[in-house]
Design a protein that fits this description.
The chain is an alpha/beta fold and about 240 residues long. It is about 45% helix and about 10% strand. Strands 3-2-1-4-5-6 form a 6-stranded parallel β-sheet, with helices on both faces. The longest helix is centred in the middle third of the chain and has 21 residues. It starts with 5 loop residues before the first strand and ends with a helix. The site of magnesium ion has 7 residues, from loops.
């Protein structure tokens, strides 16, 4: 590889279509379990995705659509309990094999391992969600293929803040220009670019309509993208 030393993958929407097929049903199961009459549909959920982070999303929904729940004395506790239950539902769903990796993802990860290109994760989602997805869709030891896994509340400010990418870069001890972030959303792209990381975008179900100024390239998926091409996308702009 000319320039590329590490690939840093986002998870939700990038590795798999986790939002519509995983997080959304898991949220709804958690609401039902806690006796809330909330049912998020796919279109409302698309709008709620502007708020990154599950706990933050629940809080935002209550603030905008459910003042009665927001006013509850145990609201903070309820958010924590809902999110815990949502995570449990999500993990079960992934363990059941309901989420497959997007085209080209597994091949690229394997190409990178063979070429000695280092692998990392930078995501807003909870750490257990990352581990279970890698194990269920790649291999039991797949989490160990990733030198750094930056996830969830490890940094206080979630995407579009750059914190998670800055944290991962610090762990990798690599300059941003030697790494490529792979993202699927406006919020993710902003986070990577603010950390001065070059970024390739693969649009997904919920992000096709978004715009991606500053991306090295915007692709429908990674089905036909090789590691050598990613190295080219990186080298060209530096
Ligand atoms: C992903 C997210 C996450 C998931 C839910 O954004 O916004 O919050 O929807 O995960 P990105 P948790 O792909 O940009 O990282 O419920 O575990 O927070
Ligand atoms: Mg994403």
């Amino acid at each position: 590889m000319k320039t590329l030393k590490a690939l840093i993958f986002d998870v939700d929407g990038t590795l798999a279509e986790t939002e519509r097929d995983g997080h959304l049903p898991a949220f709804n199961e958690a609401f039902a379990e806690h006796g809330l009459p909330w049912v998020w549909d796919a279109s409302l959920y698309g709008r709620l995705l502007d708020i990154t982070g599950g706990k933050e999303r629940i809080r935002h929904y209550a603030e905008n659509y459910a003042p009665d729940v927001l006013a509850r004395a145990d609201f903070d506790e309820l958010v924590r309990a809902l999110h815990k239950s949502k995570t449990a539902h999500y993990v079960r769903l992934v363990e059941d094999g309901r989420l497959a990796l997007r085209p080209g993802v597994a091949r690229l990860i394997n190409e990178a391992r063979q070429a000695g290109v280092r692998l990392a994760i930078a995501t807003t989602t909870s750490p257990e969600n990352v581990t279970v997805l890698l194990e269920a869709s790649l291999a039991a030891d797949a989490p160990s293929w990733f030198e750094v896994i930056g996830a969830g509340d490890i940094v206080p400010a979630k995407k579009p803040a750059p914190d998670i990418y800055l944290w991962v870069l610090e762990q990798l001890k690599l300059p941003a220009g030697a790494c490529l972030a792979i993202e699927d959303s406006e919020n993710g792209l902003k986070s990577a670019l603010t950390a001065t990381l070059p970024c390739v975008v693969t649009v997904g179900e919920y992000t096709r309509h978004q715009t991606f100024p500053g991306a090295r390239i915007v692709l429908p998926d990674l089905a036909t993208t090789s590691l050598a091409q990613l190295d080219e996308f990186l080298s060209k702009g530096t």
